[in-house]
What does this fold into?
Amino acid sequence: MKEWPLWEVFIRSQHGLAHKHVGSLHAPDAELAVKNARDVYTRRNEGVSIWVVKAADITASSPGDKEALFEPANSKVYRHPTFFPMPDEVKHI
Amino acid sequence: MSAAQLELLLRLGDNALVLAQRLSEWCGKGPVLEEDLATTNTALDLIGQARLWFGYAGELEGKGRDEDALAYRRDAHQFRNVLLVEQPNGHYGDTIARQFYFDAFHLPLLRALSASSNARIAEIAAKSAKEAAYHLERSTDWVIRLGDGTEESHRRMQQSVDDLWMYTGEFFDADAVDREMTAAGIAPDPAALREPWLAMVRKVFAEATLAVPGEAWMQRGGKQGVHTEQLGFLLAEMQYLQRAYPDAKW
It folds into this structure.
């Protein structure tokens, strides 16, 4: 259906983790996009929560701005918290 | 084991199996990829349910028939599904109408069976009810969107629900099998499921701007093994391999 909007799908695989982008699909509205996402992306027990966002509503950075946006951070190693010992029990950091 | 209990299990299993086979016919031909997957997902749920009902039926019968023997080695007149589920897919609106009428009946039936005095039946029904709840949500969504969609989708959806209406009456007929099961507390009285079903149909059709078909002559007989011509063709395809090559293994 050409006129159906495209939706980006985000799935949270388990409690405590963040939603992760898994792909996109077409659906006539948000409610059916969630149901379609359930059928397309969680058939093998992949998730506990689904978000859908209209692809058209996402504002993305432009690849052409890469240098200005990201390169200045390259030379600033002191922003990496690599100098702190982390306890082994702390996960997902 | 009573003969009525075996009949009950076959009715439940055959409803699931025959509808699953119909839905499987959409595989690779769905109107869009998302619907193709959703429809065949529903089919897989129903096949899973059929396996549970047949597995138990075979055990109860004690004649060595397993789920495959029950699915592939019976003729049309030995099937006990309601006539609705064997009706052809038609266009997608027809499939949705058939699914909605069935789901709106299936869910309350399974919920009632979850309180069956037979623990095994209660267990299978409780598991199946979770799947049926999702099926009903989905078919409801589509009835509303197609009914309250464009002028053409509305006209076609109204035609679909009108055409299939005559196959919904037998859901609620009680015969000797039903009466025995109801008396034993194993299954609900089919007649008691009619009002909740009608209420659901009215509510959803109101939102879908569809007219609820009025009093009409109802087709009956599926539960007793008297089927429409459609079932034979369906079984010919479904059973072909086991009929042509008995006991063939994958």
In short: The domain at 3-244 of chain B is CATH 1.20.1260.10 (Ferritin). Chain B touches chain A through twelve residues (CB under 8 Å).
